[in-house]
Design goal:
Layout lengths: L1 H8 L12 E6 L4 E6 L8 E5 L2 E5 L2 H5 L10 H10 L12 E3 L4 E6 L2 E6 L14 H19 L6 E4 L4 H13 L5 E7 L7 H10 L3 E7 L7 H7 L9 H12 L4 E3 L4 H5 L3 H9 L7 H14 L7 H7 L3 H9 L4 H7 L16 H5 L5 H28 L3 E3 L5 H7 L4 H4 E2 L2 E2 L1 H7 L5 H4 L10 H6 L3 H8 L12 H12 L6 H16 L3
Parallel strand pairs: 8-9, 8-11, 9-10, 11-12
Antiparallel strand pairs: 1-2, 2-6, 3-4, 3-5, 6-7, 13-14
Helix pairs in contact: 4-5, 4-17, 4-19, 5-19, 7-24, 8-16, 10-16, 11-12, 12-13, 22-23, 23-24
GO cellular component, one term: cytosol
Family: Belongs to the asparagine synthetase family.
Protein name: asparagine synthase (glutamine-hydrolyzing)
Amino acid sequence: MIVHLYEERGIDCLEALNGMFAFAIWDKNRQRLFIARDRLGEKPLYYTSQNGVFAFGSELKALLRNPDVKTEINLDALDDFLAYGYVPAPRTIYQNIHKLPPAHFLIWERGEISTIRYWTPHFAPDTTPRSDDDYQAELEALLDDSIRIRLRSDVPVGAFLSGGIDSSLIVALASQQLDKPLETFSIGFSEEDFDESGFARIVAEKYQTNHHELIVDKISLLMFPKLVAHFDEPFADASSLPTYFVTREASKHLKVCLSGDAGDELFGGYERYRWESHEQQMDRLPNAVRRGVLGPAAGMLGNHVQGKGWLSRMSVSGAERFQRKVGHLEPAERRALFLRKHRSHVDPGAWFFEPHFQYPGLDEQALRMATDQETYLSEDILVKVDRNSMLNSLEVRVPFLDHRLVEFANTLPTSVKIRDGVQKYLLKRMLKDKVPDDIVNRGKKGFGMPLKHWLRGKYYDFTRELLLAPESRSSKFFDQNEIRRLIDAHQKKQRNLADRIWPLLWFEQWCRENNI
């Protein structure tokens, strides 16, 4: 179908596509290669041009099979990984191998490569006065149609159900379109603070779904090497582990699942958006006070001391504060971690601030959502879902990522997304007559796992043995004494450093899997 569409419209065929894709077409008449990736980055595409050879693939490991492709570590990309937990496009962890960014196409013609962005989400709130009823009606129509499209399949379609706002809304609307019970899947933990299975059960009972619940007491580390190897690049979102298990469970029953991903980034679901207005009060302090007092105060505290992170964030303003909040290791921590000869690669990450320059008219909360859409959503959330689902031979479809819905969401004023401290105001308004109030009014937990407890308990020995072994591969890049200090400080509860240690674990295992 795409080939015929290209024959009719050429490059403009991309305008007619909705959903996830990554494809390549050899245009014999023009003697050129046309490669494209979907608007939001649901599907990956890698490419390289070395020694006169142009190669591309949906997996990085496919390129590495080519003997002409060199695999030198990109230290700038490694710094990005430590900072954010992922390597952002167009970089990859290897020098001279690239990711095609979302919403871009690539032309290879006579040995020349050009990449062009074909779609932008246009963050521009509509100032036309409209009622909440109007907003809700349009959003519900768009989401309902998106689900209708994504329910098209020759095989049964199920849905992930956490009991949160986004997945509950997807299950509610999908159930109304089907003439048979929907298959739903959730995962829970024995640790109560991280367990959402009870909420998922409430929604499943409301819509009489065939519900499958997986409770995890201890995630076996036997699957860790397999998962790391499949991801191709270092990836530090610890929720990739529960995602692996829930996609594996779903794949035992069907081949296609709907997901509620992207609701947070589009409709203001993360706690960091709500706190933005409070933290902005610190911006009233003169810059000299923030950088001259709070900054040095943070510097006086060791990297492993409680309170250092907060002082560090409050010493800067706006976008830089947000960058430090969403990241893993701050610049000072990365400099301490890198061997001296590699410290010049520690970079403030100018790419992260691009949305702030592109959309200067947005309020601070809208800017944070735009930044998350352009970075965290495509580089973390969608990578986690795609890699785990593909590993388990499951296709995951994301109704919130219908580009029509994304464009509409980005015209909404912030007051319709976050109102009087209520996050996802519009989604909750839509959900109110579809599920019990306990679901609508519940607090957000997120799809995480009790990593800080496990790294102090059941995975403590594994952590030390992997990272501090004499044969450690990452010791070529990092100071093992600093790693030891991180592990010890976390174990002694001086500070929660799980989000610092986990990237190191993943990178060490990744190095071993790839003979680095």
